[in-house]
C-alpha cells in the first residue's frame, strides 16, 4: 500500500475541526517516514528478496517500532499530542491519531506476514501483494474516491486537485512499474522521503482556500 494510505487523510480532512490536509498527509505516512529514518541507522531493517511477494521484492523483516500496532499507536499518540498543543482541539487530535493508526490497518491488508501487534511474533499480513488484480484496483479506487470526497467538500474539482491526483498516480505508477531496486542503501530512504514530500506539497496546494464553489458539485 502506497498512495492508498492517503485515502484516510483525504476523507478525514472533510470533517469539521480536522487538521489541514498536508498535516494529515504527514500523519498518513508518519510511520513510513520514521521507518525509512530508522533504516538509515540500522534500527529497523529491510532487504531485497525477489519473489517474497508478487508485487514487492522487499523483505521487511525487522520493523518492531514503526510497523507494530503498538508502535503505530505510540506514533499516533505523539502526533495527536502535537496537534493538540498547536490547536487545543481534542477532535483534531483524535482525527490525527486515527489517520496515523490507519496506516497499520491498511498495511495489514496488503503485506505478506511482517507486521506485529507488539513488535514480537506472530507476524501478520493478509498478503494482497500476491494478488495484484485485487490490490491495484483497490488502491486506486479508495484513493480516487477519497480525493473526490475531499474535492466535493472543499470547493469542487480544480487545478490543484487534478495536480494532486496526477502526482499520486505518477508516484504509484513508479512504485508499481519502475525499476526494481537491487540493494537497500541510503538512496532508498531519500527516494521514499522525496515521494512523501512531493505528495505532501501537492496536498498543501490542494488545501488552499477556494474563493468560489464551482457549479455542478452539489
Keywords:
218 residues, disordered C terminus, 2 strands, mainly alpha, 8 helices, 4% strand, two-stranded antiparallel sheet
Provide a brief overview of the structure.
The protein is mainly alpha-helical and 218 residues long. The chain is built from eight helices and two strands.
Protein described:
Helix 1 (6-12) packs antiparallel against helix 2, helix 1 (6-12) runs parallel beside helix 6 (132-153) and helix 2 runs antiparallel to helix 8 (186-206). It contains 8 helices and 2 strands; from the N terminus they run αααββααααα. The relative contact order is 0.18. It has one domain (3-206). With 218 residues, the chain is mostly helical. The longest helix has 22 residues, at 132-153. The two termini are 31 Å apart. Residues 212-218 have low confidence and may be disordered. The protein has a two-stranded antiparallel ribbon. The chain has helices at residues 6-12, 21-28, 30-41, 69-87, 90-110, 132-153, 159-177, 186-206, and strands at 45-48, 58-62.
Amino acid at each position: 500500500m502506497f498512495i492508498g494510505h492517503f485515502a484516510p487523510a483525504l476523507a478525514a480532512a472533510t470533517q469539521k475541526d480536522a487538521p489541514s490536509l498536508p498535516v494529515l498527509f504527514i500523519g498518513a505516512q508518519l510511520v513510513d517516514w520514521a521507518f525509512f529514518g530508522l533504516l538509515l541507522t540500522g534500527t529497523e531493517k529491510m532487504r531485497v528478496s525477489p519473489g517474497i511477494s508478487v508485487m514487492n521484492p522487499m523483505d521487511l523483516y525487522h520493523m518492531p517500532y514503526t510497523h507494530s500496532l503498538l508502535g503505530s499507536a505510540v506514533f499516533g499518540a505523539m502526533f495527536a499530542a502535537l496537534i493538540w498543543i498547536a490547536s487545543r482541539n481534542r477532535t483534531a487530535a483524535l482525527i490525527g491519531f486515527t489517520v496515523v493508526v490507519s496506516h497499520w490497518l491498511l498495511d495489514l491488508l496488503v503485506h505478506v506476514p511482517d507486521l506485529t501487534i507488539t513488535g514480537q511474533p506472530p507476524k501478520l499480513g493478509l498478503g494482497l501483494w500476491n494478488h495484484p488484480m485485487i490490490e491495484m484496483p483497490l488502491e486506486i479506487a479508495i484513493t480516487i474516491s477519497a480525493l473526490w470526497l475531499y474535492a466535493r467538500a472543499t470547493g469542487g474539482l480544480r487545478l490543484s486537485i487534478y495536480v494532486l491526483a496526477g502526482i499520486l498516480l505518477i508516484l504509484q505508477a513508479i512504485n508499481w512499474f519502475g525499476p526494481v531496486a537491487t540493494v537497500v542503501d541510503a538512496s532508498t530512504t531519500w527516494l521514499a522521503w522525496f515521494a512523501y514530500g512531493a505528495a505532501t506539497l501537492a496536498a498543501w496546494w490542494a488545501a488552499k482556500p477556494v474563493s468560489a464553489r464551482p457549479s455542478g458539485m452539489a
